[in-house]
Design brief:
The protein has 401 residues and is α+β, with helices and mostly antiparallel strands. It is 44% helix and 16% strand.
Length: 401
């Protein structure tokens, strides 16, 4: 019998990104991952995975970000907005905006989730403090609200953060609440690469790889063998004596080359690089894998990286900041945008061609282009110019910026 005043307890359910069905299907993590434990730290032991994560996070953090106010005439930049001030002043006193965005992207790529604590002041977000994901335990309350149990890695103190206190960036999610790390989704791929790397390391550590064998006719005493080794080292050892012709009386030199198994290991390691790059959506040339690249396809692949991978992550970050920092009313009147034209910063030829088209088409004025480039305005540069009007005035099709 239940007393009327007896209180029933409802505990918060702990959320994890493990898919137990996959673990049951493969009969345990170690068996599925070729005897390797796959986690965020071990994944970055693979140089290809670390380079892919750095390429994505580093590219995004290099792009400028702006806050715009929507007006009847279109939109205008709002530099006084709290989020706009963060883009200039940084996440906090210790972390600049590029450093913070790089951490945010890399953390999400490593763990499938990244969290920032919002520090308010005067009704607005004043600072953003990174929360390492391994120190967080996300939970769902009986009411359906998410909370985050955070353990400070330095002091060991625990505290609970509400979903309104945390800015949560997710990679692709399975349950709509938390993301799932790519290294965990494709753990057999990472496990195979780690096992291959461990095997290669042990092979070089424990194996012996002479370049050749000297065969001597007749019986050789220990004293003669020591003398021959010393003479051989003096005559032919060292980099300065490489390429010297060898004269071996009563002896024969046989070269020792790599075995087919060694070549298969090298090919497998090259394929592991491609697998890691494919997992994060990064073309080979971006992580300095030039094995299948040419000048033409490298340019195309880099464009694909910008349009496919970088633009997707920029949109996710934009939506996360708008949802987590803007109020409900501000979401109707303001926009946060990461400017992808910043990708042309290292490509002046393409950038100036784009500027020329913008001026010729009457989209931007010369002074607007000069402002973007950091130049002072010209007295006659505020009027929109078209190619035809400029040709009538100057007698040619060139526009002076």
């Amino acid at each position: 019998m239940k007393w009327p005043w007896q209180r029933s307890e409802s505990r918060a359910a702990v959320l994890t990104q493990k898919d137990l069905r996959l673990i049951e299907l493969f009969d345990g993590d170690l068996d599925a991952n070729f005897g390797q434990r796959v986690n965020a730290m071990r994944t970055e032991w693979l140089s290809a995975a670390a380079a892919a994560i750095d390429a994505i996070a580093g590219t995004i953090c290099s792009l400028p970000a702006y806050v715009y106010r929507v007006t009847d005439a279109g939109r205008e930049e709002d530099p006084g907005h709290p989020l706009a001030r963060l883009t200039v002043d940084g996440f906090n006193d210790n972390l600049s905006w590029p450093d913070g965005v790089q951490w945010l992207g890399a953390e999400c790529l490593r763990y499938g989730n990244a969290a920032l604590e919002k520090i308010p002041a005067a009704g607005a977000v004043r600072e953003l403090v990174p929360l390492p994901w391994p120190c967080l335990v996300p939970k769902i309350l009986a009411s359906g609200r998410m909370v985050y149990e955070y353990t400070d890695p330095i002091t060991g103190l625990r505290r609970r953060l509400l979903d309104t206190d945390v800015l949560h960036l997710r990679d692709r999610t399975d349950n709509g609440l938390i993301g799932r790390a790519r290294s965990e989704r494709a753990s057999p791929v990472i496990g195979a690469a780690l096992a291959l790397s461990e095997y290669s390391g042990n092979l070089f550590k424990n194996g012996s790889y002479p370049s050749g064998v000297v065969t001597i006719d007749g019986k050789v005493t220990a004293e003669t063998l020591d003398r021959l080794k010393n003479e051989f080292k003096q005559l032919y050892g060292g980099p300065k004596k490489s390429g010297t012709a060898m004269i071996l009386p009563n002896a024969k030199w046989d070269s020792v080359g790599g075995s087919p198994a060694d070549q298969e290991i090298l090919d497998a390691r090259r394929f592991a690089v491609e697998e890691a790059a494919r997992l994060y959506g990064v073309p080979g040339p971006i992580i300095n894998d030039q094995s299948h690249s040419t000048f033409t396809n490298s340019e195309t692949l880099i464009r694909f990286f910008a349009q496919g991978t970088i633009s997707t992550w920029c949109r996710k970050i934009e939506a996360t900041f708008m949802r987590g920092i803007f109020s409900t009313a501000e979401r109707r009147t303001h926009r946060f945008e990461i400017d992808l034209t910043g990708l042309l910063r290292g490509d002046p030829e393409t950038r100036w061609k784009s500027n020329q088209i913008a001026v010729d088409s009457g989209i931007l004025t010369p002074n607007e282009i000069r402002e973007q480039e950091g130049w002072n305005p010209r007295p006659d540069g505020d009027a929109l110019k078209t190619k035809a009007a400029t040709a009538d005035k100057a007698g040619n099709n060139e526009v002076v910026l």
